[in-house]
Amino acid sequence: MSASPLTALARTTDPRTMLRRFLALDAVVTAANGLAYAAASGPLGRFLGVDQELLLTLGVFLTLYAAGVGFLAARKSPPVFPVRAVIEVNAAWAVLSFVALAGWLSPGTAGAVWIPLQAVTVGGFAALQYVALRAGR
To answer: CB-based contacts of 137: which residues, under 8 Å, 6+ apart?
Structure first.
């Protein structure tokens, strides 16, 4: 990914601001997803064809994780080690979503579409955050 599309997407050329914006976007999307999973695990579980207990657990985890990512985004200069941890967790989430889909989940049609879609989104956050982190060095 070149700097030009990245700067256009972040609407800034400052690498720290880019990183903070990508972290903030990640936090907002993850919090919305987590809150939806936690608050509506039953209906969403039926719609997606995924166990509601799994969605509830994931919802709580995602909500707490989003709070941590949001905390990093709020820092003027997010520290490298926690940002790397966010990138690695996002990358692992993306990969494990596909592994779970292939290995042990048997979702309905909506879930079979949603799981890869959210995995690609989270992987995209990891990629954007990684490039922004490297640009700041």
So the answer is: none
| Dihedral Cα 8, 16, 90, 59, nearest 10 deg | -100
pTM: 0.87
How many helices (H) and strands (E) the chain has is answered by 6, 0
The pLDDT profile of the chain, 137 residues, written as one tens digit per residue, is 445 555 555 566 788 889 999 999 999 999 999 999 999 999 999 999 999 999 999 999 999 999 999 999 999 999 999 999 999 999 999 999 999 999 999 999 999 999 999 999 999 999 999 999 998 76
Distance from C-alpha of 1 to C-alpha of 131, rounded to nearest angstrom: 8
CA atoms of 122 and 106, how far apart (whole Å): 21
**Are 33 and 65 contacting, i.e. CB atoms less than 8 angstroms apart?**
no
CA distance 88 to 60: 19
Rounded (5°) CA angle 124-25-21? 100
Q: Which residue has the tokens 């990891």?
A: 126
User: DSSP assignment of 70-101, as one string?
Assistant: HHHHHSSS--HHHHHHHHHHHHHHHHHHHHHH
